[in-house]
Amino acid sequence: MASAAPIFSRALFRKNLQRFWPIFTSYIFIVLLIGFNLTYNRRLAPELFTPLTPQLFMDRVYSLSGILALVVALFSIVAATAVFSYLFNNSAAGMMNSLPYTRRTMYFSNYLSGLFMVILPLLVFFLILTGIGIVHNCLDFTALLGWLFIFVSLSLLLFSLAVFMAMLTGNMIAHIAFYGIANIIIFGLLMVIDAFLSQYLYGFTSLFTHSNSYINALMNKLTPVIYTSELSGTYTQLNWWVWIAYLLFGMVLIGAALQMYNRRKMEKSGDIITISGLEPIFKYGVTICTSLTLGEIILHGFINPSSGLLVSWLVFILAGMLGYYVAEALLRKSFKVLDSYKGFVVYALIMSLVILSAWYDWYGYATRIPDVNQVEVVAFSSNYAYYHENILQADHGPVYFDNLPNLPESLALTYGTPISPEKDPQTNEYLYPAMANLTPEETRLLWSASRGVFSQANSKDQIVALHQYIIDNIDVVREKYRTTMFIDDNNRQYNITFDYRLKNGKIMTCRFPVYLATNAPEAWETQMLEQMASIAGCDEERQKMIAALDMSANQVNRIVLDSLVSNEALLENESDAITPRRYNEAIEIHSQDREELLTALTWDFRDMTNEQILNSPGKFIASMEISFERPQLPVNNKYRDAKGYWYDIGVYHTHTIKFLRDKGYIDEDIYQYALRNVAEKR
Amino acid sequence: MIKVRGLSKSFGDFQALRDVNITVPKSSVYGIVGPNGSGKTTLIKHIVGILIPDRGSVTIGDIPVYDNPILKESIAYIPDDIYFFPQADLTEMINFYRQVYPSFNDERLQKLIPIFPLDHHSPLRRFSRGMKKHAAFMLALCIMPKVLVLDEPMDGLDPVARRKVWSLIFQDVSERHTTVFISSHNLRELEDVCDCVGIMHKGEVVLERNLDELQNNIFKLQLAFRQEVPDLSNLTVLSQNQVGSVVHLVVRGEKEQIISQAAQLDSMMIDVLPLSLEEIFIHELGGMDYGISSTNI
Lengths: 682, 297
Prior knowledge:
The complex is a heterodimer of chains A (682) and B (297). Chain A is built from 27 helices and eight strands. Chain A is of the alpha+beta class and 682 residues long. Chain A has four domains: 2-201 and 208-274, no CATH class; 279-359, no CATH class; 372-538, no CATH class; 549-681, no CATH class. Chain A has a four-stranded antiparallel sheet. In chain A, strands 6-5-7-8 form a four-stranded antiparallel sheet, covered by helices on one side. In chain A, helix 1 packs across helix 6, helix 2 runs antiparallel to helix 4 and helix 2 (21-39) runs parallel beside helix 6 (103-135). Chain A is globular, with a radius of gyration of 32 Å. The model of chain A is unreliable at 576-582 (pLDDT under 50). Chain B folds into two domains: 2-212, Rossmann fold (3-Layer(aba) Sandwich); 217-290, Alpha-Beta Plaits (2-Layer Sandwich). Chain B has helices at 40-47, 69-72, 90-100, 106-115, 129-142, 159-176, 187-193, 211-215, 255-263, 277-284, 286-290; strands at 2-11, 14-24, 29-33, 55-60, 63-64, 75-78, 147-151, 179-183, 196-201, 204-210, 218-224, 236-243, 246-252, 269-274. In chain B, strands 6-7-8-3-9-10 form a six-stranded mixed sheet, with helices on both faces. In chain B, strands 2-1-4-5 form a four-stranded antiparallel sheet, covered by helices on one side. A four-stranded antiparallel sheet of chain B has the order 12-13-11-14, with helices on both faces. The termini of chain B are far apart. The interface between A and B is medium-sized, with 30 and 29 residues.
């Protein structure tokens, strides 16, 4: 009999629109305001006075994605809270459910009235945009329909999510909180898990590295507001399946919420959770989230995160206890909850087990190492000096190599030659091939030019040998890292990172933050430093350094010394030498001195010891910008004209510093400072 | 006819209703009484289809009430805590009820407007409790209900308004054979209007009778003895009180039977008096930890 009843009541629908008209009218007002700024506000959009093209128009429409996604998210919860507000009040729930409707009719009438409130403003906005497009003769109707589909899908998904959350709870504040949490649950969980593992699992490399890009991509897709807000830059490459999936998931939520509404116990109005079976999930969910989030905040905000196992364990357990009892108090609506300690004891035991297992690495995470024969290429760094991840996977995604002074000519030809001899009429710039998805040959070429990336067999052997040595000494390495709370004069921190690209294409990243003694190191520390130095100064790396200076003086347009350490800083306190107290003005090298300077620099790279190359970044003197042309490239090639490349000059660049002193570019005391440092290290 | 069979309902660990069975005859006025927290409102919320029973059934004319819009169109419900849409005035609520209830009767509305003189354009939230009750009665009566369910309906109404409301209810019962289910603490009032009474205690209906039958089955008996009070075990005594030589008893049974049994006790005086509903209520619940005694603080 119930199923024969209509699923929609016009009376309820109209009543909701009468009652809640301020919601959709204010929503319409906001989108009109945004639309006005987009199209007619001269101050915010001065480029309006250039003729609008369909692409430029859609660029502007999609540039609103960030703000519009937030507006959709906000009004979805407002509308859902409004139309289902009677569920949060016992009297209202009683009155509404005594009306002659089935629950299905009640649900759909309220749902549709709320959905109408969030869709109507989008339709109004769509019509206005269409009008603007027609008036300015820049309408791409298909693209605009695509935009509408995207935001209708998002609205349906977020509004359905808000309605689903209304079915879970009988409390309005909890409803809003649940909706907010649901919107960022994936992002939030990954963040707290990442922070937790970073705290306890030695060598953990973060879930958000490039090698875990699928996690980032998945996280974005599962956080629709973030995914939509990023549309402004990528709308020309839309993944329609995502929007269809949002739409379908929204519909699944409609059905799920209906089932929950049909079974909802109206006497639960006011309760935090309306479904008894979900109470444990709520309780332990709050416990875990509070434990991880509050624990991290306390550790990083009030206590040193390196304060050891016992303190951090205590912080996480106490934070969890707070969350557990708060959740219990919310469920019981009473502060008399101390008798429910058993559940917390179980949680604390499990949490302790997880913490111990990560702390002592029962999973063998820190001792993973690939077979050297399976390594295609490896990026090695001891101090985050280079960012390799994109380069390692240049054949599978975007990469950037404009900053390579030794860019191979074939890459310069392929990616520096315009796609068309004509400039783009909209931007008045040449369009170049996208630096992405390089061929295998191009990828290998890029590796051969990139510092910190090692593809030669000898280098790979050296790097894997260092990795193996660290693993063989993992207990002492880890213990020293965990017990050294602050960097002092006796220790220097290295972040040793191995990014392997294996022959099966997979990326394996192993990271070892270590403290190594600078005075009286132990045998294992000496050994590690020697191995790191031999990698830093190996033939493959030196060849790349020298190749970066492989140019004639005729190609060079300009050489400038910048960010030079000031005399005062050096004289006052040596440690201040790395503070930003610089000469105020850059020093330009005269054209007649350029060739000699290039020669000096080249000799430095040849003569520096391995240890000096390893320690060079910590002994900074100045940055040097060399601008040079590549006249052998075609006229329109973007790498042909002079481009500036930066080289760090340290105390170990003895030939260069002597040359600069001899020519009067730098003062004697800087030269002496450099000599003194070199002598000390010897 | 409203039938409740085996109805049970728990709120968490609290058992609000326990195997409740009641029968409300058509065109009758049924009063449900009981102490606070006995389950009256919970029972009413099941009768109007708000709550889902854990066990048991609620039917009207043998048709289940829950999720049955056709049946609910003929039920008017006035709760103790009346809810109107927060911003609404009476005109808006009338319009809403007119759209929701197909049987809404504008002719009757016009007749009721002078009986309940209310400002139709002031927000209902500003109305006093009594005025809200007026509005609720006006709306409930306009939908021409076959079943009228009232939870503490007269709370907040002045005596004149009460009389007006009862008069209108009786008119519906007599003319339209409306069935009225009413919960109230005002036993004196129920005594005057009810045909049947159910007494609830701790989620159970402990007694359900026709009011006449109920009042004919329990009496106040006054006896006077020259010497000691004899054995009274041949009477079903619910309470006993002695002042000097006079013994006051509350006794269950037929009046004639009580008189004949009392006559065997050699009493100087036999006086059988009827009990008010309030007294019956007190004595029926007396054995259920709800006895009334002089309470002093």
